[in-house]
Amino acid sequence: MEISNLQKARAAYQPKLPKALQGPVKAVEGAATQSVGNQAEIKELFPNTYGMPVITFEPGAPVELPPFNVGIILSGGQAPGGHNVISGLFDGVKSLNPANKLYGFILGPGGLVDHNYMEITPELMDQYRNTGGFDIIGSGRTKLEEEDQFEKGIQILRELNIKALVIIGGDDSNTNACVLAEYYAAKKYGVQVIGCPKTIDGDLKNEQIETSFGFDTACKTYSELIGNIQRDCNSARKYWHFIKLMGRSASHIALECALQCQPNICLVSEEVEAKAMSLDDVVTYIAEAVAARAAEGNNFGTVLIPEGIIEFIPAIKKLIAELNDILALPEAQHITSANEQLTFVRGHLSKDNLAVFKSLPADVAAQLALDRDPHGNVQVSLIETEKLLSRMVADKLAIWKHQGKFKGKFGTQHHFFGYEGRCAAPSNYDADYCYSLGYNASRLIANGKTGYMSVIKNTTAPAAEWIAGGVPITMMMNLEKRNGKMKPVIRKALVELDGAPFKFFAAHRAVWAKETAYVYPGPIQYWGPSEVCDQTTKTLQLEQAK
Questions:
Q1: pLDDT score of 375 more than 70
Q2: Is-above-0.90 flag for pTM?
Q3: What residues does each domain of the chain span?
Q4: Catalytic choice (201, 203, 216, 430)
């Protein structure tokens, strides 16, 4: 395939590894663990993979292992660095025994079920090192939940003599990895399952996982675009730019981009929920900032909006919860038209929720009541929240103008940054972090572990000082309602309002709102001073006070 000069140069980059992974390792076990919630129920559901210790790798003595093969799956949406996880796993597996083979299952978990696979050869791997995207084997959103799927999977795993399966995914995908690990352990099939923490949304993190891979690159990519818009905005001085950013369940991306770019306004969904703000409260907050800048002669600005904010407005969140229950009813499964579904929904909503439903613009109400993703969630990325908010702000400003409270102009431009960051070429941080995650997974396999997540910690330090190991996936789980039923899932990490990143933002946003204090981060740099090329996110720096 044709490659650019940049890709040629990046192909030569050798990602850095933690010192503990630079030679043979020994696994040091910590104390027994328990799940973050619903301990009795999770233990009952996962008797073979519950309570295992946290693993930390330290330099050890060489151990000869017989040849074995490994399978790999990319699951869910793309995130920068996926190819580096695969190259790290490939190099790690080959370093254990050159005869070992790595097989990729095509288009996600469905490839395992349908026996659709390919061997990842050295020649193929070398084409994808340090590149963005998941295109080496593709990804998919098939959920691994049914015994029939597990049994079809074991057929091809045995046929290919695969000892371990590595699943690269977010919270839902790693929940599926945990379920699969438990099933194979219960059946004594002898196949290990290891997870890797991927999601650009940044909501797969906890005390053990510092950050999910791809978050650094995606935020730097979006921040470059936001900086470009802010430079244009400050040049033309005639538009308010409403910029929606990925982040359905958490506002980590919006907050990180705000820390990098210093926009006039950044909404944080978790704060909106904590303050029990209504949609009108959010609109008023934006309108007041617009009016204050207009009074200074500045009829321009930038507003960052997390994709999922509408789900965090308490009244709408309550409405969505009831809608999810209604759409999970058996009689709802036979509805064939949108109009019929809307009528069914209106007929089943409680009085308070029906009032909220009727108060929404018709297009937004229809979106909330219709499509769901495979996990039963509202497809909030399809709701044009940036246009909804700017439209409502314009309406409020028109009233204020009539009342003599607003004398400025309010022109708008709209943007949604999603796909632009999902397959970006990984930053040096993500290239190193992802390679280490994959290489580390090979060591978890070599040490006979299953039901573990590959984790790399201490990542604000130089890469040689990073800490490698594994965490039982059950440790991160609790029960939540999905599609009308309580199911074991990995708990999502939301923005913590008492955490250092948000507190820093909250301390500065009043100044950013009134003044034009924009920062223009520019494009990701791969070569040059370490302080330019190897920096972690502002979020990680503030969390670890570095």
A1: no
A2: yes
A3: 27-214+426-482, 215-422+498-543
A4: 201
